[in-house]
Known about the structure:
This protein has helices at residues 59-62, 146-151, 158-164, and strands spanning 11-16, 20-25, 34-37, 42-44, 63-67, 70-73, 84-85, 91-94, 98-101, 112-113, 125-126, 137-138. It has 165 residues and is mainly beta. It starts with 10 loop residues before the first strand and ends with a helix.
Amino acid sequence: MYNRKMENNKVEIIKTEKYGKAVFAKAKIKKGEFIGAFNGKIYEAERAMLLPDVPPLRAGRHAVQFEPKKWRDGKVKGLARYIAHSCNPNCGIKNMFEVVAMKDIKKGEEITWDYAMTENSDFRMKCMCGAKSCRKIIGAYSMLSPKVRKKYKGYISEWLTQKQK
């Protein structure tokens, strides 16, 4: 099981004007380096939009899907739940719950991952990432183009890629 001490000490949570708390690099992070993990409570629901969304839990916004009807939350005070989505992320998912760097990350850079790397449900949310490649809607793995899936290869939750074989 993961604990707070196992989170990467090269990152920190900072309050932003754009969307509240976010995670930023305090030092250079190398490709493949562990950032943090979704290591909180497990929820079951028929649909993602039925997950609890009551503060302070807000599991519907801070959980990763790992089976068709199961999601795992980040710890309430853990950094994984504050890593923002991007349609051009610098991190991805390994071992279903771990956030790892997909490329070298510079000091001061925001830590991001694409929520579609774990999700294949009814979850939809307006995207605010601002990337040139922005899809405008955060959604499911099934909505990703073959080109994006290829770009993310090795950083998509195993439960999604195993289904595709």
